């Protein structure tokens, strides 16, 4: 039933959003250049890697040492607008159709985080990762790592079709209000691996 919901909703959304996505692609190409899509490896179900697809929202601007500037500097104009409206997330519907993502589930994270989960937190890999989830409707990027990963555990251990529908409904509300979107998440909190490395050193 969950997979049927994923495929059905993703197909309908892609059809309805096609004009918006086409305009967004054109704007990204004109304002940010190529490539139009941002493709990055993430860890999926059973800890298998896959490549997530998003619209590009940042420039490749670098400092005098050749290092990329902070996300908050590189994400502006069209990119900032696409993030605020969550339009940059639309290409992930293709990942849903491929079976790599679900509409609802633990958010897929970077492979370099894999060694830093507790055994309890690893239950997140028993289900397909999602475009949205409990952590996202609970505060999106503002939720601390321990709390965010606990949301993931709660989702997996108490999953129901009704829960998915509730999360989807709350996600629509957050998207319409454009709430909880961070242009530069790294400025608000450390990456998981860095945070846990520091906490383990202190303990």
UniProtKB/TrEMBL annotation:
Transmembrane segments: none
Pfam families associated with the record: Bac_transf
Domain Bacterial sugar transferase: 2-176
Source domain of life: Bacteria
Keywords: Transferase
Entry's Gene Ontology molecular function annotations: phosphotransferase activity, for other substituted phosphate groups
Family: Belongs to the bacterial sugar transferase family.
UniProt protein name: Sugar transferase
Record organism: Micromonospora costi
